[in-house]
Amino acid sequence: MTRTFLTIAALSALASQPANAADNFAEYGVNIGLSPFGAAFNASYNPSKKTTFTATMGGAPEGKAPFKPTVEDVEYELEASSSWMGFFINHRPFKDADWFRFNTGIGIGRIMQTLEDGDGNTYTANYTENPVGYFGVGFGLRPVKGFQYGLDLGLLHTGGPTVVKTGGDGADASEDLAADFLVGTPTMPNLQLSVGWGF
């Protein structure tokens, strides 16, 4: 309930930003984003108020995930790392709501995961197929000069990970891990919060 309230409050704040004044249009922008896949640096070019082209690069060093996925009643320790770059197009369809946009593009990179159960069975679940597609919606990051902030929600469309058992004497759970929503799904949800500057 708290998370739902905070999300609604954030979207309301973004929607309440004043309309984009003609003399405040920013042709360029830079921002830093934070998502479940790590931090990213983004550089944007706005050929018009409706369209933004963005190049991004980012990632996260190897570390333990803040959750332990449970698959077929077996709990796993999860460590992951990521690195990527991508190219995206944002389109703002509504003249009087430049805080709302559609976002689509491609990413090139990898997500590496290592899992271990309580009996010492270990697995890798790595996303290395390139490129991958992305589609989502964004709120904020208006093409204006000065401080910018925004929220993006979307889906990464991949071929799924390659899951391989790397150690242990237990039964091979690779297929179950590959089918799990948190570990091996081909379509991964993404949420990114960004702050930056337009000029």
Write the layout of secondary structure elements.
Layout: H1 2-15, E1 28-35, E2 38-45, E3 51-64, E4 70-71, E5 74-91, E6 100-117, E7 122-126, E8 132-140, E9 146-157, E10 162-167, H2 174-178, E11 187-198
Antiparallel strand pairs: 1-2, 1-11, 2-3, 3-5, 4-5, 5-6, 6-7, 6-8, 7-10, 8-9, 9-11
Please compute the radius of gyration using only Cα atoms: 19 Å
Give the proportion of residues in helices: under 10%
Widest sheet, order of strands: 1-2-3-5-6-8-9-11
The CATH class name reads: Mainly Beta
Global morphology: elongated
Could you explain the architecture of this structure?
This protein has 199 residues and is mainly beta. It has a single domain, classed as Porin, CATH 2.40.160.170. The protein contains two helices and eleven strands; from the N terminus they run αββββββββββαβ. It has an eight-stranded antiparallel beta barrel with strand order 1-2-3-5-6-8-9-11. It is elongated and about 65 Å long.
